[in-house]
Amino acid sequence: NAALLKKLVEKGVITEGEAAVLAEEANNEWNDAAALPSWVNSMTLKGDLRLRYEQKQNGDAHAETDGRPARHRFRYRFRFGGTADLGNGWKAGFRLASGGTNPNSTNTTMDDHQQNDDIYIDQAYASWSGNGFTVYGGKMPSQDKTGFKFSKAILDGDITPEGLQVHYNDIEFGSTTVGINTGVWIQDENKDDSNDEYLYLYQIASSTSLSDTMKLDLAWGGYTSQGGQFDDTIHSDNAGNDSGENFSISSLDAALSIKQGPGVKLYGSLIENHAADTAADGLLYGVKFGSAKKAGQWEASIEYRELEANSVYDDYSDSDFGAYGTGSNAGQYYNGTDAEGFVLKAKYNLYDNVQLGFAWFRTENNDADGSAENPNENDRVQADIVFKF
């Protein structure tokens, strides 16, 4: 205490030199006690909580009597994780999340008479970066967080794949930067035979600065499946391929970003499954305005999608996009492919860490004919509030 030392010097109890020594010793003892453990300085923690109201219904006037009642759900998503910097380019990360075992959703529906809910391991991975390379192994972050630039419409952003990925992003041609992205996702290990299941991903992506306010992003790539169970999906009928490669997807993605005013982004994707004989194509295009990152900022987008039944692996496509089935599947809302329609989204940041969100999916089944049994229009509405910490 500086005031106490000063008073002791004034009364002649200690000299000024002795007071200085005591002050230095006290400061050293304080710094040693207050020093944080090394793991605290190397660890970054973060999480988020999303509360959602969702309604989905068939647009047909006879929906209630045809076995397609409107559904109202209150849901939440909780995620918490961290990243540890291990030095020498190495990092280790983890994340825990709500939800079930569904790979493309971490939502938990509020029901079941207030029972306690489960927490699952959503990420558990190691990564290394150096000399333009970034390598991931384990249960990794979603593809759009690690370097791939596939649309979330064909690879849902909630999927945290298990396997290995290698990214190289150190190729430059003037104002253009080119990256190469590859990965092997492990689907299933079959104990009864050697026909294990894998997904092989590849992509070449470029980003070109056209001016101080304009950028063009292009990407071409896809994925190929290997194994015997990839045909076991709701919509796809790719069974029977002798090679076992039921999906061989190629995707061409483009985005033009203009940073003037609130900002505008025009984007689109062309998709084809070369392993399918029918219903093999997909298409999406849209426009986005603004960017909701900080308090008071907003964004809005409108997008059109058409994903034919065999265009992509429907178990991995956007889990929010779909339509009510037809024929023997009438009355059930199926997420994934064999659907087309518009997606309207909007976000507004109340604070840096609190965001409001709205989404409206206006879709129809590709096989719909407008009858009571096969209605055209489906609506899915979501209202969110997200807290980040």
What is the element string, with H for helices and E for strands?
Answer: HHHEEEEEEHEEEEEEEEEEEEE
Overall strand count:
19
Helix content: under 10%
Radius of gyration: 27 Å
Strand order of the largest sheet: 1-2-3-5-6-7-8-9-10-11-12-13-14-17-18-19
Distance between the termini: 37 Å
pLDDT averaged over residues: 88
What structural class results from the helix and strand content? mainly beta
Summarize the structure in words.
The chain has 389 residues and is mainly beta. The protein has helices spanning 2-10, 16-34, 38-42, 143-146, and strands at 43-58, 71-87, 90-97, 108-109, 120-130, 133-139, 162-173, 176-188, 197-209, 214-226, 248-258, 264-273, 281-290, 298-307, 322-324, 333-335, 339-351, 354-365, 378-388. The strands form 2 sheets. It has a 16-stranded antiparallel β-barrel. The protein has a two-stranded antiparallel ribbon with strand order 15-16. Strand 13 (281-290) and strand 14 (298-307) form a beta hairpin. Helix 1 packs antiparallel against helix 2. The chain starts with a helix and ends with a strand.
